[in-house]
Specification:
It contains one helix and 15 strands; from the N terminus they run αβββββββββββββββ. By secondary structure, it is mainly beta. The longest helix is centred in the N-terminal third of the chain and has 26 residues, at 3-28. The radius of gyration is 24 Å and the shape is elongated. The termini are far apart.
């Protein structure tokens, strides 16, 4: 083995050892400790982190700022940046940025983009949320989207789904699906094969079957009160 090759391999080995030492220190410190930098470790639990965290299994933080990727799940009280959990991502209080859950995604309040490959569930959102099977958000400011079923209490913006979109209180904006339902009132437009409103419609229903109290329930175009 040449001296040059030995020196190069020695440097690589030292760099790997240093990286492992840093990762080990980051993952075994006291809970709640602030950490800035790069964490490469199977799991991280309950610490404040700013930087990059790559976890084979899971990452659980009080606050996280940066990029966090977990082989199973990522969760935090407050998350700022990009969070990816190959199984799930959960921001218990607030998510600001982009979040992706391979199965489920959600939490408290979303300010940005949230994607759950099967489901998205949150208390409120400002931005865009999507859940393939279903998406359930209490208060929507922005675009609430799903393939099969989307449900919300209040929508200020747009609610869409291929099969069913349901708004249990007030819809202010557009509801688009094969079947749309607004329980309280509509201030905007329902677009679907079947549109049903249980309360006052201040807008229009566009569909083959339109049902709303106090209107003529015209097919195709049904003006509200």
């Amino acid at each position: 083995m040449s001296k040059r090759n030995f020196g190069f391999r020695q440097k690589i080995l030292l760099a790997l050892l240093a990286l492992a030492a840093c990762s080990g220190t980051a993952s075994t410190g006291p809970e709640g400790e602030d950490y800035r930098g790069i964490i490469l470790w199977p799991y991280v639990s309950e610490r404040n982190v700013s930087g990059l965290s790559l976890n084979l299994f899971s990452g659980s933080y009080a606050r996280f700022t940066g990029l966090g990727i977990g082989g199973l799940f990522q969760e935090a009280d407050r998350f700022n940046g990009v969070g990816i959990g190959l199984a799930s991502f959960w921001a218990r209080e607030r998510m600001e940025g982009v979040s992706l859950g391979g199965i489920a995604n959600g939490g408290g309040h979303l300010d940005g983009l949230g994607l759950g490959c099967l489901a998205f569930v949150a208390d409120s959102q400002c931005g865009w949320s999507f859940g393939a099977l279903f998406s359930d958000v209490d208060t929507v400011n922005g675009w609430h989207d799903s393939v099969l079923y989307s449900r919300a209490d209040v929508v200020n913006g747009c609610q869409t789904s291929w099969i069913l979109s349901e708004c249990d209180e007030c819809l202010r904006g557009v509801q688009l699906s094969l079947f749309t339902y607004a329980a309280d009132r509509v201030e905007g437009c329902q677009i679907g094969l079947v549109n049903i409103a249980s309360g006052r419609v201040s807008g229009v229903q566009l569909g083959l079957i339109n049902v709303a109290p106090g209107t003529w329930n015209f097919p195709l175009v049904n003006p509200g009160q």
